[in-house]
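User: Hello! I'm new to structural biology and keep hearing that structure can be predicted from sequence alone. Could you demonstrate with Porin? Please show me the input and the output so I can see what each looks like.

Assistant: Of course. The first part below is the input, the amino acid sequence of Porin. The second part is the output, the predicted structure written as tokens.
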Amino acid sequence: TETCLRIHGYVRYDATGGDRVYARTPGDLDRDTWGKLARATLRFSTASETELGTLKTFTELRYNWNGGGDGE
């Protein structure tokens, strides 16, 4: 049998900077701060013909990372 495999996804990265990025305390309000966020998604799709019709599968992996602070 033949199986069709598709691999796709994306990567995103955001960086922010300036006063009060993720500030939580009065002391943090006086500092120059920065923040960053990364996100990645990887998707796998397959399709195969069977006696009962097309069998499809789908798997998605997600990764999120959020780091921010005062430049430490």
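User: So the tokens describe the shape?

Assistant: Right, they're a compact way of writing down the 3D structure. Reading them back into a model, for example: The chain has a mean pLDDT of 82.
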